[in-house]
Predict the structure.
Amino acid sequence: MDFPRILTGNWGVPDSHRLTVARSRGTYGRLPKALGMTPAEITTIVKDSGLRGRGGAGFPTGMKWTFVPPAEKRNGKPVYLLCNADESEPGTFKDRYLMWCDPHLLIEGMIIASRALDCHHGYIYIRGEFRFVARRLEQACEEAYAAGLLGKNILGSGHDFELSVHVGAGAYICGEETALISSLEGEKGQPKLKPPFPAVEGAWRSPTIVNNVETLSVVPWLIENGAAAYKALGTEKSPGTKLFSVSGHVRKPGVYEIPMGLPMSQFIEEYAGGLLPGRTLKAVIPGGSSVPVMTPAEVAKCNLDYESINTNAGSYLGSGGMIVMDDTTDMVAALTNLLRFYAHESCGQCTPCREGCGWMYQILCRVRDREASEQDLVTLRELADNIHSKTICFFGASAAMPVQSFLTKFRSDFLDRVQGRGAGAA
Ligand SMILES: Cc1cc2nc3c(=O)[nH]c(=O)nc-3n(C[C@H](O)[C@H](O)[C@H](O)COP(=O)(O)O)c2cc1C
Ligand code: SF4
């Protein structure tokens, strides 16, 4: 398929992470134009492009930027730009490659975003386990500072932007934006109720924009090519290209950039190489582990855009982390494994999430080990229903939705376990 590689154009180029190579391929070439524009002009391009945040929720990026109060209403407070590089959700592994292969693209995107936001301080908050990527980012920042691309008076434009890499301690919840902010401030990485939204009151109680790595990496292309060129890709409501990380029972797991709207089956077949020989599809989790699972019939009628997956399967595109499961998959074991993750990662603030995730995991262990009854499945469902939407942050729903959807869509697998049927039955 012929389309511009907005995010992956430099992947595979030797030393693509080094400044000289990045510059020779056009990175930072958009800066003079962007720094000559007014903040409003940059924001208008991003708004008109229809770019939606790639961290999972798909919130329109340009619109988010407009929520930052104007200078006269900020009481002298600075604006912060935070790049969310916490990427810890099972099944999602796109941002690490973006930062590893093309750190300067992200830095260029952050400089342009900082100009649009009248912001002079930015942080890349990166997951603790990605120390090797953090070192590469730090090296890229050092190169950019030495070349006058970061710091005071960037390229003589009068715009100042200081950028630091902040390494987290490896907690999934620190990917949630308010927890990320608390962690950056040196507090416990726990989410806060919204409102206030970070754009109005975020880091150090100042207006703060939190954007995903992939979102910010799109911005330079928008400046160079304009909003219309971006809108020409993908679908009307989900424009542009997107990174999809695909894992599980496919021949070619990996990260792929494709225009939004590609049929899901075509993506699995043509990009991920299809299933292993002799296997049939059992299920797909489309958007990172936190979204409802899909059946093969749903996969067949869905395209890879925000609307299609929601309308046709009641699930979400999320971060684009696709987990493909074939007919050898033990769905009970798969869900138990996921819940072990959520039970471990709950930050513990809300009772339904703190207690409920642990209970769901314990019940699932008993279902998996054939020690549970049908009544336990009822309890499991009730627990999930009582966690969803009853917590401070979306983590609770993220843990509940896999349980609800697995129990509904693959009910017979669970009944087999509690009624003594299926593989492994005595
Ligand atoms: C439990 C939880 C974990 C999250 N983890 C991430 C993450 O690792 N990376 C990310 O970009 N967004 C993550 N998010 C979403 C962020 O809160 C936020 O919406 C996002 O960074 C905004 O960026 P965007 O507008 O560019 O999508 C998470 C949300 C929740 C509820
Ligand atoms: S939902 Fe879970 S992770 Fe989110 S604040 Fe409550 S306890 Fe913490």
Observations:
- Strands lie at 80-85, 121-126, 162-167, 208-212, 241-248, 254-259, 281-285, 321-326.
- The chain has a mean pLDDT of 97.
